[in-house]
């Protein structure tokens, strides 16, 4: 939701210098990255700490790390993170989660609003964990969260049916706000497959259509936040900078993770990143699609790894090292995405004679 990744990444880039990061393909997600991630960002009680934003926690971060735990077959850490999330962030009125936890002060969750991406990630992680570890209580919790998402967040604008970013503050008489990076395509695919007669297949298809339509400016890139009016027309959100940046970088991550790296909607993203690589320069962390202004600092390692995944189908072999929470999360998630896509496309073994 509304936290600022820019300040933390400025400090990171100042330490690294404005230099290109060379990545090579990885054969599998490095287990050492998960071990380092747990050491640096996951507390003993299961709280995932955003080191770039005052050590707060988000439903997004809990979901990121729970997905990682399913990929690395770590049920013990998963259980701790889920227990903390369920105990601390659950809203009393619906099976959704408060979006932010502040470790200081007396009131740790002053904003009761949820964040769609966190809710989707947590529901998907519980589905993955329930299936992998044969835990029916995880499957049931996932089903409850999925039901709450459909009940509370599904909005129709014109001929579009979309999920809003949160229960409060994103719909008015003029339309709604849509965040393309909250359309977590592999999660939507999993929910549609799990419940083929539910609204999830429609939600998935409409999200994909919106991602294809929500591209703007001369670069034709996706942006972090989109305004959808009552007719279904899409515009850059007038209240936020129209940037392809820290949020919208997850659009190609999730599209590639779901096997859609070849979708034409990603062609402008590929051209954008390729133009810098061809010139031997690092891509900036963001571009304003309206003015053409770019960030005065390079994309961090995690964003570069998403670019690797998008351009080559192979993520980086980098270690998280000094990366902050968000860059480290993008790095590991892109490594997992590359590995899982490779496993799904691997030719079936020939039967033995």
Distance between the termini: 56 Å
Strand order of the largest sheet: 5-6-7-8
- What overall form do the CA principal axes indicate? globular
Give the helix/strand class.
Answer: alpha+beta
Question: Which radius of gyration do the C-alpha atoms yield?
Answer: 19 Å
| Total count of helical runs of at least 4 residues | 12
User: What sequence of helices (H) and strands (E) makes up the elements?
Assistant: HHEHHEHHEEEEHHEEEHHEHH
| Helical content (DSSP H or I, runs of 4+) | 40-55%
SSE inventory with pairings:
Blueprint (H helix, E strand, L loop, with lengths): L5 H11 L14 H11 L15 E2 H13 L3 H15 L10 E2 L14 H18 L2 H18 E4 L2 E4 L7 E2 L2 E4 L6 H10 L5 H14 L12 E4 L4 E3 L6 E2 L5 H8 L9 H12 L8 E2 L12 H12 L12 H21 L8
Concise description?
With 353 residues, this protein is of the alpha+beta class. It is 46% helix and 8% strand. Strand 5 and strand 6 (175-178) form a beta hairpin.
């Amino acid at each position: 939701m509304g936290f600022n990744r820019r300040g933390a990444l400025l400090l990171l880039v100042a330490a690294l210098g404005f230099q290109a990061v060379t990545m090579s393909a990885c054969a599998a997600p490095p287990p050492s990255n998960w071990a380092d991630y747990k050491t640096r960002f996951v507390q003993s009680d299961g709280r995932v700490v955003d080191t770039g934003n005052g050590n707060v926690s988000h439903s997004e971060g809990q979901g990121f790390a729970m997905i990682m735990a399913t990929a690395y077959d770590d049920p013990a850490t998963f259980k701790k993170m889920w227990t903390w999330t369920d105990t601390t962030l659950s809203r009393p009125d619906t099976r959704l989660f408060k979006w932010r936890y502040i470790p200081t002060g007396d009131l740790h969750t002053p904003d009761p609003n949820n964040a769609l991406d966190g809710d989707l990630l947590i529901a998907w992680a519980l589905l993955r964990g329930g299936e992998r570890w044969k835990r029916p209580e995880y499957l049931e919790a996932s089903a409850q969260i999925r039901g709450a998402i459909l009940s509370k967040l599904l909005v129709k604008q014109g001929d579009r049916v979309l999920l809003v970013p949160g229960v409060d503050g994103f719909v008015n008489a003029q339309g709604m706000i849509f965040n393309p990076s909250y359309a977590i395509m592999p999660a939507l695919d999993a929910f549609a497959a799990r419940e083929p007669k539910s609204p999830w297949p429609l939600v998935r298809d409409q999200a994909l259509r919106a991602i294809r339509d929500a591209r703007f400016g001369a670069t034709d890139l996706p942006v972090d936040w989109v305004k959808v009016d009552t007719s279904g027309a899409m515009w850059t959100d007038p209240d936020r900078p129209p940037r392809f940046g820290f949020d919208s970088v997850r659009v190609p991550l999730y599209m590639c993770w779901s096997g859609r790296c070849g979708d034409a909607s990603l062609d402008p993203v590929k051209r954008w990143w390729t133009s810098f690589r061809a010139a031997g320069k690092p891509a900036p962390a963001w571009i304003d699609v309206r003015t053409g202004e770019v960030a005065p600092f390079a994309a961090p390692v995690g964003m570069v790894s998403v670019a690797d995944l998008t351009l080559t189908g192979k993520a980086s072999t980098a270690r998280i090292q000094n990366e902050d929470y968000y860059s480290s999360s993008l790095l590991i998630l892109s490594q997992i995405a590359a590995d899982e896509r490779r496993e799904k496309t691997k030719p079936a073994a020939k039967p033995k004679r």
